[in-house]
Amino acid sequence: GRSGKISEIDAARKAESLRAETGKLRDLSFDTISGSGPNGAIVHYRVTHATNRRLRPGDLYLIDSGGQYADGTTDVTRTVLIEGHPPPIGAVDSFTRVLRGHIALAAARFPVGTNGMQLDTLARAPLWGAGQDFDHGTGHGVGSYLSVHEGPQRISKGGVVAMAPGMIVSNEPGYYAAGRFGIRIENLQYVRPAKRTGDKHRDMLEFAPLTLAPIDRRLIDKAALTPDEKLWLNTYHADVLAKVGPLVDSGTGNWLEKACRPLR
User: Fold this and answer.
1) What end-to-end distance do the CA atoms of the chain give, in Å?
2) Which residues constitute the domain of residue 13?
3) Residue 4 DSSP code
4) Cβ neighbours of residue 10 under 8 Å, at least 6 residues apart?
5) Is residue 175 part of a domain?
6) What pLDDT digit, counting tens, does each position of 105-138 carry?
């Protein structure tokens, strides 16, 4: 209804006001990255009155934001299609590759002692297959009511520290088509021991998601997902709906139910 009326600054302010409504927000974790269309392709974009764009039909809109609360620090990125026009050429393919990388890392099981450098390749492999990549780390450590970027753990080409139970890391692969669009999908996840299967003497670890927000189904090429990838996404969305659904008003709940529908 308000297509073309909402600007990047409006959207960033709305996200902050929704967090503030809880009465528990102490501060933002960082300046919100609110980029539409070509501005979304600028990795650490900070909107100003000079660069502020209106969100137009067919734009990809990337919002990376977070809050500081007494019981934790959040950091989440979603990329969504502004309705009313098809997405840019190549956007669905790139979004699906980014999603597949995100899922590969989220669903990974790995031996104790595995470091961030080894895990980093999982999130990049689908993009590498298309001759694409992203020029930032896949994940950073996150504190609890502390720094939103906090070491020593990180998932990146230089991440030498081994993952250990209780560590929180981000999972945020992306793709940036200069002058056209940007894509990033970011959840926070924590490391926990995995059930022992296979070698009984081998201790394994896995990730569990902390961030609960739908991933835009309109940008997914369903045919490119494996059955396991679809299962991960459907299970994740069912979890989002079960945990977030009871906390929102009925209008938001109806939207959430549609956004979390299983992929067939």
Assistant:
1) 29
2) 8-211
3) T
4) none
5) yes
6) 999 999 999 999 999 999 999 999 999 999 999 9
